[in-house]
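User: Study the shape:
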Amino acid sequence: MDSPVNIASFVEPNFGENAYVLWVNEGGPCWIVDPGLPPSARDVIAHIEEHGLKPDAVLITHGHADHIAGVPEVLQAFEGLAAYIGDGDKPALTDPRENLSVNLGASFTVECADTRDLAPNTELTLDGTTWKVLDTAGHSPGGRSFYCAAAGVVFVGDTLFQLSIGRTDFHHSNHDQLIRNIHENLFTLPDETKVYCGHGPATTIGDEKQYNPFLQD
């Protein structure tokens, strides 16, 4: 189907993390999803300026370092922007152990004057499109996905990948919770829903239900 939403992706070269810019109309509001390690934020900012977009929010699928490292640069470029993150992952903004940057040998924190919760089953709106916040915790305590029925897309962070799933060997991960949330909150979406992952290529709900070896009954 024709999607009302434009999607630009930006792949960070070291970890292959995907950042996204979402918008409906040229020159209209946009969302920034998971700006990561350099040059992620720089590329996102350049794209927004090139298209004359007006940033409305930063959406964070989860608080791991490779998904939030670019948030400070984005907030500096667009003053007053709110950052949305699930309450369970909010400690990751200020605790290098929780955002796993200590594992990279480069501990950092993110200062954000306006941080807002992503409560499951609530809705966000972007230029006339409606997005449902889905609970996909398990890889991290407050992992969230963003689903737009009209566009037929869902952004899942590190919950689900093409033929794989997010790691659950971190101190705050929960494997059973991750599997349950995938089955209950992602696999209940239409099969043709396009899945935009935190790493790697996009896939579809139908393909992952049928072929993902980690999710077969």
Remarks:
- Residues 175-186 form the longest helix (12 residues).
